[in-house]
Amino acid sequence: MTEDQKTPLHDEHVALGASLTGFGGWLMPLRYTSDLAEHRAVREAAGLFDLSHMGEIHLTGPQAGTALDHALVGAASKIGVGRARYSMICAPDGAVLDDLIVYRLADEHFLVVANAGNAVRVAAELVARAAAFDTVVDDRSAATALIAVQGPRAEEILAGLTAPVDVDAVRAMKYYASAPATVAGVEALVARTGYTGEDGFELFVPAERAGDLWRALLAAGEGHGLVPAGLSARDSLRLEAGMPLYGHELDETTTPFEAGLGRVVKLDKVTDDGEPLPFVGRDALAARAESAPARVLVGLRGEGRRPARAGYDVVRRGLDGEAGAVVGHVTSGAPSPTLGFPVAMAYVTPEVSAEGTELAVDVRGRAEPFVVVSMPFYKKRS
Fold this sequence. Notes:
- The protein has 9 helices and 20 strands.
- A 6-stranded mixed β-sheet has the order 11-12-13-10-4-14, sandwiched between helices.
- By secondary structure, the protein is α+β, with helices and mostly antiparallel strands.
């Protein structure tokens, strides 16, 4: 068995007494104190996350944008400099290999951020798919640390550490935008992105400076309610925000359309000369876009107290609380600390996917009532 890798912040987590767990080939903090306390801190103040297990793959050169247009389902070449976009890399049959964030750092410079467990594969796929284009693919994952500050007080905390010459740009930064800035004396790429449903920032920094920045953010955030937060809080936060997790809502049996993410697929991409630009998986995805779905990803709100969990059967509601026919399966589920009731995401058959449909989840042999609702379950306060 291969030993889990350690992030550049591993010693910081140990010093803080974190409970550690394997995730995507990495040894990561699951929690520092309690899942509930860390979740609530992000919703009410701020949380500090180590995301250094994620992959960072750079593409540079005159055809970097066109290469990504061919490799991914979205139109990376249309992203403005300093902006970012959610995308996916698919197999020829349209199945999702990973979901990604693509940042355009300059006219001929893009950054692709991949999920930890898929980073090596994504880098290899990008090398292969970009081979016919004038671009260089450079996997800088090992040299890069990624730290996130998430929550309603994130901007205030980060601004207090940002160099005066950069602070106005950080404060004015739009959602899904990025810019270089010096934070606590560390040169960083600062992005207003995140995976919690709250305002927040993600900071890409050299791995050797990660500890300095982590400690500075902890100290600066102490008076603002910031706490370090682990994977458990990150999962409950993203679930409340209705955000998919690879390996749960997305995998190699799923296309973007089943997941309700067909909007990220751009079937009409063209080259700079106006010619149609084929991309990997296009034909399969075009066919899928025209066909009726066999299953649909929906949100479920629990009417009782017992939560659904990944893998549980979704069933029709029978009489007297009995479970009816199986109509789907839960992909993610947990009690919602913010909302006070269980929430879940599930794939169900189309005829039971309408909002308001009353269903049940088989929770250890008992049919617990749930109802189909729109996502996200939680929206941040404006």
